[in-house]
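Quick one, T. Sequence first:
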Amino acid sequence: MNTSFKNLLNTYDWEDTLASINTKTTEDVVLALSKNKRDLEDFKALVSPAAKPYLEQMAQLSSRITKKRFGNTIQMYVPMYLSNECQNICTYCGFSMTNKIPRRTLTDAEILKEVRFLKAKGYNHILLVTGEANKTVGVPYIKNAMELIKNQFSNITIEVQPLDQEDYETLIEANLYAVLVYQETYNRAEYKKHHPKGKKSNFDYRLETPDRLGRAGIHKIGIGALFGLENWRGDSFFTALHLKYLQKTYWKTKYSISFPRLRPHSGGLEPKVEMTDRDLVQAICAFRLLDEDVELSMSTRESETFRNHIVNLGVTSLSAESKTNPGGYVVEPQSLEQFEISDERSTEVIAKMLQDNGLEPVWKDWEHNWQ
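Structure tokens:
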């Protein structure tokens, strides 16, 4: 019988978990900070309100641990949106089926045109992104796009609709390196409110996607929550619980965590729960203190000021100059974006910023033939 994170999640109650986090004490935080190896109860303390006065100490410790494990490096990647067609209704996304926007899916020629621009910028790791429209941008389309560009990038990651295990096995044979799949929120009732229609409304199928990826033998899985849909402390804990389950179950696989916050988009949704910059720093540092090996990724959703500071506090990968519309780099720069970018600086400026912070931007650290 296949194992599943769903069975573990069902043993937890959202409100009881929040109460457990919110009642952590100063003593719990001090104990967590004093340990060399921390568990999920320590993580609760580190994301609790009681940890707020210890943010500077957490940040310094997170920075030291990150530099010990990853050195003075930041992995560079870039997203390339292939399609904005989508069959889901999501309350927070510009691609939602009910939004009356022009839809387009890139042709082979358009994909290669975008790739030429990104290669000239120096990128060697690419993230392919689509809306969730299985008939238009299903496995055949994704596989074709990968085969089209595989000789130009050291690794290819995708962020597309959740797929079945055999679909992932097919794409892994075609040189797929990693898959990012975000649960959005681990609160089942709130999830349903934000995903009323479409395949994405199936909470369990999405929740079990990393299990299908792990069984398929993928090299890396990226998980995370969309902060703003629910209490960030609760979603941080369940992301951490998911991470630890996956690491124990699929121990040959690498993992990454991303930290997207709600951003403005067409038909925009106001966050239910505000996550301040200090809250986001607290969450990032808590994940680093929980796990020294997990990769922590920061996108251009965040502001220049925030990204300038966070690169030395725990994150290990960074995107730059991102466009969130298909063809956004050169094919059709003016088409509607999935969400607004906050940090619009060029790749060259971001690389210079990293170097000024004593960090080396890394464009390639993987070759498929090394497997």
